[in-house]
């Protein structure tokens, strides 16, 4: 390294802020819950970490999520017409990274934890809060696939520290 070089925390390959997509920059400033979406069973199980999610209260409740259209999960949801959503807690950061394809998953995505099979898809064993949904519609939305679901089953566990995502980092949201 030459004497004039310095180490810094900025990524030299990232475009300057004024050249980045403003909608993506706005999205990065919105705090999002980190959830795990799963579908299928046995060898056909698929899952993906999803932070672009909206839950609408009502009768029945509705869930909307933005998925990678090329993901195994998008295919499994289309095939089965059902999916499970588990809000992740602060202690599940590694699980979020594995299903977000940011951390290694030796043996496959479902090999590291214990799982409970449900009619909607697998959920992490011991998950206190999760919901089972029936697909009511899908559509292209920008570079994502929007999946709409009606909540058919809901389990509410203890209110524990939640995992949130903002500006490229995880944040802990403590219950009040």
Automatic annotation (TrEMBL):
Q: Establish whether keyword Oxidoreductase is in the entry.
A: yes
Task: Write the record's keywords in alphabetical order, separated by commas.
Answer: Oxidoreductase
Gene3D superfamilies for the chain: Electron Transport, Fmn-binding Protein, Chain A
The molecular function terms of the Gene Ontology recorded here are:
FMN binding; riboflavin reductase (NADPH) activity
Stretches assigned to the Flavin reductase like domain: 27-172
Q: Which Pfam families match?
A: Flavin_Reduct (PF01613)
InterPro entries cross-referenced by the UniProt entry = Flavin_Rdtase-like_dom, NADH-dep_flavin_reductase, Split_barrel_FMN-bd
Which family, according to the similarity comment? Belongs to the non-flavoprotein flavin reductase family.
| Protein's recorded name | Flavin reductase like domain-containing protein
Species annotation: Actinocatenispora rupis
Question: Lineage from the top down?
Answer: Bacteria, Bacillati, Actinomycetota, Actinomycetes, Micromonosporales
């Amino acid at each position: 390294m030459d004497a004039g070089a310095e180490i810094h925390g900025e990524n030299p390959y990232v475009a300057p802020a004024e050249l980045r997509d403003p909608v993506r920059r706005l999205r990065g400033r919105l705090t999002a819950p980190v959830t795990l979406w799963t579908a299928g069973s046995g060898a056909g199980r698929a899952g993906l970490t999803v932070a672009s999610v909206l839950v609408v209260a009502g009768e029945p409740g509705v869930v909307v999520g933005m998925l990678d259209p090329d993901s195994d999960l998008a295919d499994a949801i289309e095939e089965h017409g059902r999916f499970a959503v588990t809000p992740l807690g602060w202690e599940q950061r590694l699980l979020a990274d594995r299903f977000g394809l940011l951390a290694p998953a030796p043996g496959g995505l479902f090999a590291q934890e214990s799982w409970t099979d449900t009619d909607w898809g697998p959920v992490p064993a011991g998950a206190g809060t999760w919901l089972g949904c029936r697909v009511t519609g899908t559509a292209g939305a920008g570079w994502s696939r929007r999946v709409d679901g009606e909540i058919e089953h809901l389990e509410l566990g203890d209110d524990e520290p939640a995992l949130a995502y903002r500006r490229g980092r995880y944040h802990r949201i403590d219950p009040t």
